[in-house]
TrEMBL record:
The chain crosses the membrane at residues 25-45, 57-79, 99-124. It comes from Glycocaulis abyssi. This is Succinate dehydrogenase hydrophobic membrane anchor subunit. Membrane-anchoring subunit of succinate dehydrogenase (SDH). Part of an enzyme complex containing four subunits: a flavoprotein, an iron-sulfur protein, plus two membrane-anchoring proteins, SdhC and SdhD. Keywords: Electron transport, Heme, Iron, Membrane, Metal-binding, Transmembrane, Transmembrane helix, Transport, Tricarboxylic acid cycle.
Length: 125
C-alpha cells in the first residue's frame, strides 16, 4: 500500500531520483552560512566606505579580510549555483538546452569563484 504511483509510472520507472534531499539540505546549509557571513562581510565593507583604494585593499589583503571575503563569496556562489540549478531543472524542458544550461551554470559559478580567489590572493601579497 506504500506505492502510490500509477501502473504507467511504475512501468516507466518514474519516481524519486533519491537526490533531492541532499540538494535541499545543501541549499539550506549555504543559506544559513550566508545569514552569518554576509552581515559580517557587509559591516566590514561598510566601515571602509569612506576609505581609499589602499585602505580597502589592505583590509581585503589582511588575513581576517581575506578569510571573510573568501568564505562569504564561496557560500554566495555555491548557493547561487544550487538555486539556478533548481530553476533550470524545473523550467527548462528541452534536454539539450537543460544540459547546456546546467553545465554553463557550473562553469560560471566556478569562474566567478576563481576570479574572487585570484583577486584576494593578489591583494594579500
Amino acid at each position: 500500500m506504500g506505492d502510490f504511483r500509477t501502473p504507467l509510472a511504475r512501468v516507466r520507472g518514474l519516481g524519486s531520483a533519491k537526490s533531492g534531499t541532499g540538494h535541499f539540505i545543501a541549499q539550506r546549509v549555504s543559506a544559513i552560512a550566508l545569514v552569518v557571513l554576509m552581515p559580517l562581510f557587509l559591516v566590514k565593507l561598510a566601515k571602509n566606505a569612506g576609505a581609499g583604494y589602499a585602505e580597502a585593499a589592505a583590509w581585503v589583503g589582511s588575513p581576517l579580510g581575506a578569510i571573510l571575503t573568501l568564505l562569504a563569496m564561496t557560500a554566495a556562489l555555491y548557493h547561487m549555483r544550487l538555486g539556478l540549478q533548481v530553476v533550470i531543472e524545473d523550467y527548462i524542458y528541452r534536454p539539450a538546452t537543460k544540459a547546456i544550461l546546467l553545465i554553463l551554470n557550473t562553469f560560471v559559478a566556478a569562474g566567478l569563484w576563481i576570479a574572487v580567489l585570484y583577486s584576494v590572493l593578489a591583494l594579500a601579497r
